[in-house]
Amino acid sequence: xxxxxxxxxxxxxxxxxxxxxxxxxxxxxxxxxxxxxxxxxxxxxxxxxxxxxxxxxxxxxxxxxxxxxxxxxxxxxxxxxxxxxxxxxxxxxxxxxxxxxxxxxxxxxxxxxxxxxxxxxxxxxxxxxxxxxxxxxxxxxxxxxxxxxxxxxxxxxxxxxxxxxxxxxxxxxxxxxxxxxxxxxxxxxxxxxxxxxxxxxxxxxxxxxxxxxxxxxxxxxxxxxxxxxxxxxxxxxxxxxxxxxxxxxxxxxxxxxxxxxxxxxxxxxxxxxxxxxxxxxxxxxxxxxxxxxxxxxxxxxxxxxxxxxxxxxxxxxxxxxxxxxxxxxxxxxxxxxxxxxxxxxxxxxxxxxxxxxxxxxxxxxxxxxxxxxxxxxxxxxxxxxxxxxxxxxxxxxxxxxxxxxxxxxxxxxxxxxxxxxxxxxxxxxx
Length: 430
What we know:
The protein has about 425 residues and is of the alpha/beta class. It is built from ten helices and 20 strands. It has an eight-stranded mixed β-sheet. Strands 15-16-17-19 form a four-stranded mixed β-sheet, covered by helices on one side. Strands 2-6 form a two-stranded antiparallel sheet.
């Protein structure tokens, strides 16, 4: 008979060799009229209904007992800091999951997320939005909690493909224009061979619907996810990439047609992959907040007045508070099973940041998650900042020039340290 001590050692050993995944979804469409995120010319106009629902799609990975939550949101950005902290605290309390990558798809037909329950910053004027935040927070946390409850052993495969005719650089006038053409997919199957989840990482602004349409929509991302589910029966999770300078190349197609075509490419890639058992599951995660000097002083009354006229006061006051102590973006880096990297950054990164990081990291597969764990405006490349223009000038690229490169260098060092290719720096030096 197996003794208790031996049984516990056997169970611990088995858990250390197990790779599991679980998925879940919750709807996060606002139920009341609220201001819409993404286009300045709307100012604080209220929403007028829904074109298609918004969702939170959660994927939990368990690699030998270490867990990571990945959440794709049909929102313009990740939740603002107060919401993000509450979501993560609940996830940690109810699941024990310490690390999460919570990313907005960057749809410009989602709700404003920056209000707070303070005079002049949302309270009294936008109470419906404040009520929505609590509902959204609960829905996101519940999706992760359910995904964790549904963990099961899985097989895994990851791959990438270069696509032409789906995105284009909307910023640079210098040829050849930078562009990230890579679609990256993580496919997870049950041990019985049934597709469980397909994670799709792609970079292109979801700005296909006119700003005058005051209705909620996931834009092309919703159609992409529907195509994946219909074709494979797998739970789709979409994560936006480094899309700061990239638009869709729709060639006359509307957002649903474009999304379905892009979804067809994702399905084609996923079906070309052969998921296999993970022999040596492992997960390492590092996260930090960096600090950069702001290029624009929102405390200056003249500057603030210009921004409030372009947008609206309550929104600008949020960012005035956000940048009072400098621009402090989140950087989250994970290494899965020693060969797959996830890099999440809280802003709109120009595409060459992801392209160069991928080249330099020399990993089998690298996923770049933009709009992740917060939102700190645009991060152009240095040469993009020199060229100037929307997305590169100080009006919306608030962090000091070179901030994006510093964050990518930090991510690169961490990825090599995690693989034992570089000695880890002392904690105080990080």
